[in-house]
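pls design
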């Protein structure tokens, strides 16, 4: 249960103001197909984070020992620093007349590719390594992505302009730093 809750919370907070959230806002503003965009986010995140979770799970079983704790703790502290760096997304797709299925697959593809190597994907791998569990970590990180991106899709740019992104970015950094310290201290 801890793996699910911690994965959900960390990814939800870390995702706010991330480039994939900016992509969600952009797609919502351009295509006005929230159900297709949310379904695409869900599919892409499940695939991407399942891959990351499998890598983390395997790493936890192949690489054991004290040094693994130090690597994971350092990774989470690096995520804390990374979370403080704001993402930008300059170009939105101009076409507003796309069909539902087209928006779904475009969103799925875009989110899958944009999420590759992103802090939430790497955090999912690190969480799977920390907890040595794939399903609760992937379920939690996917839920966190949906929790963070659903309001962005449903409320669009108006919500993004009103959110205190600097404070949210700081909260994400603090959550990653606390997790890193917890891994280092508690083992």
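designed seq:
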């Amino acid at each position: 249960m801890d793996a699910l809750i911690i994965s959900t919370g960390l990814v939800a907070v870390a995702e706010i103001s991330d480039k994939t959230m900016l992509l969600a806002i952009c797609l919502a503003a351009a295509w006005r197909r929230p159900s297709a965009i949310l379904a695409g986010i869900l599919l892409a995140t499940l695939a991407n984070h399942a891959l990351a979770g499998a890598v983390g799970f395997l790493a936890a079983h192949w690489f054991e020992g004290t040094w693994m704790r130090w690597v994971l703790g350092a990774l989470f502290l690096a995520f804390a620093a990374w979370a403080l760096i704001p993402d930008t997304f300059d170009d939105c797709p101009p076409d507003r007349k796309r069909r539902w299925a087209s928006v779904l697959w475009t969103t799925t593809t875009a989110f899958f590719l944009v999420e590759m190597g992103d802090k939430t994907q790497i955090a999912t791998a690190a969480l799977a390594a920390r907890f040595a569990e794939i399903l609760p970590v992937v379920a939690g990180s996917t839920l966190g992505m949906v929790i963070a991106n659903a309001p962005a899709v449903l409320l669009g740019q108006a919500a993004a302009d009103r959110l205190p992104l600097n404070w949210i970015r700081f909260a994400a950094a603090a959550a990653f730093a606390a997790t890193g310290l917890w891994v280092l201290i508690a083992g």
